[in-house]
Amino acid sequence: MEAVETASRSTSRSLRRVGILYDERMCRHHTPDDEPHPENPNRIRAIWNKLQSAGISQRCEVLSAKEAEDKYILSVHGKSHVDLIRNISSQQYNSRRNRIASKLNSIYLNEGSSEAAYLAAGSVIEVAKRVAKGELDSAFAIVRPPGHHAEHDEAMGFCLFNNVAIATNFLLNEKELGINKILIVDWDVHHGNGTQKTFWKDPRVLFFSVHRHEFGSFYPSNDDGDYTMIGEGPGAGYNINVPWENGRCGDADYLAVWDHILIPVAKQFNPDMILISAGFDAAVGDPLGGCCVTPYGYAMLLRKLMDFARGKIVLALEGGYNLASISNSALACMEVLLDEKIVTGSTEAYPFESTWRVIQVVRQELKAFWSVLADEVPTKLISQKAPIPKILISSCDSEAEDVEELLQEVIRPLSTLRVDEDCRESASVSWRSDLSNIDIWYATFGSNMWKPRFLFYIEGGQVDGMQKLCSGSMDKRPPKEILWKIFPHRLFFGRESTRTWGLGGVAFLHPESKNEDIVHMCLYRITLEQFNDVLHQENISSYDMSSPLFDLTSLDCVKEKGSINLEAVKKGWYHNVVYLGMERDIPILTMTCDLSDIENFKSGKVPLHAPSEDYANTLVKGLVEGGQLSEEEAVSYIKEAATKPL
Ligand code: Q9C
Ligand code: ZN
Q1: Is the pTM of this model over 0.70?
Q2: Which InterPro entries match (predicted)?
């Protein structure tokens, strides 16, 4: 009973309706020749993979990206800017694109930029709309390019459209949504200059940004992010900047700002909804940020905001450039949104002296607008300040740190923050638990089309009359679903004999598709962990499986390239994993030979060979019992595949 519950819990939806949005098309925005750049496609891939392997996306409502309509973008940006971003990826700009980008501040552009920019903006609108309507409690839009630096007529700081500002105006303008007051929290390590300007005079939007400022020397390197910038006219008091004087700020500093500025003001403002410009470049290990916020820190910051706006919170990704840091931080935030674990504790480290000073000047500056800020911060609190710890100085300023090491050796001892229960084990457990949450369709064209045969690869054991003992998968759960489909690929039979079937060829699939070919495939919905075990058995490999043959990176890669050869089992006959598309958002994978093997079959170096009677009968049984073909049809289907020249 207990085991059943545990098994179902990992895949069941949360009580909280949490939306998550990811779309591979946003990866098509990259540097023109794919030169290295911190704001690259792997950022959102890493986050998405992490959330999938931790079983998070499975508990969420997964949404697909939509391009924003121009009329919504035009509520923030000027027509000439929208025209430029709409057209910049078209051919007519090919010769000018790089020159245009080089005239902008920290911007690159390519053929995929327009679509990605429209999708990023449209995706934040999409999730925000659903949260506003109450279809979702909260949501995370894993978008790029980021947005908060983009101004009315200017792309800058890796940002093309200001996604969060656009979604905010959308919510306010759709009157029937009933969203009249919005709090934007910008915890990206950089100042959200574009968002600040958009709502400078707007009292419906309280813009709060905490950022590294260093008296105007940190990007975007001007005075816009100063604490004196509080908004204007009716918007006066509705813009709050908390400018760090130095890097190295961490959980304690951010929590102090939350407790003594943001949370009291949020209470008084009483927003209808909260949008978070959720950059993770203040995270420990970030190569640009130089700050030290841990995943627990982010979880706490978010947790404290959930008490407002009836929990209607949307996170939109902004910056964050260390793949491990942003993935772990995003994971911690999703656990908070799902509300299945209790985040408790307070940090043992103290804020810097400069942090208390900044908190005091911000409160001073804004107390005329927010009565909750009027009192002095108790001196007892302020006296609790961190000596600048030497280990943190050296660690946080250097660029390429091993984050895990840093987390373990430096941050954790300083912090008593805990995310309760079992969630923290995930870092240390093997690849199996990661991949056991991901489903794929394993598309079979050979003897595995006959279900009892295939089940031996899952359950282990010895199938009647055959020579081989199968080890099975560690996860012996049967396929969740079985589905048949036809694909435009060529089925053929090759090699002289096998240990399992004796004399005769076995089935292969030509890895490339061709319109005149058809192949019947039986698709088993199994986990990526099970797929690895099948790959291992099919290739009779001696590989020790301490790491997976085919992991999430391989999955991304095969989706992009169409097929990948697995080095570790290159001697196996089915060492080439081929991607056959998606079925209900789940990738379809098969395993076969590669193109060089095809050449060897064609040249006769490796023989083509009709299947043995036993083997052919197994395929026929599969096709007939699977309800695909009559017996005669199945027999002639196999015969044709065995006789037609390759
Ligand atoms: N010396 C975001 O995090 N750095 N943007 C340029 C020039 C640009 C960061 C440095 C940093 C932009 C969304
Ligand atoms: Zn940033």
Answers
A1: no
A2: HDACs, His_deacetylse_dom, His_deacetylse_dom_sf, Ureohydrolase_dom_sf
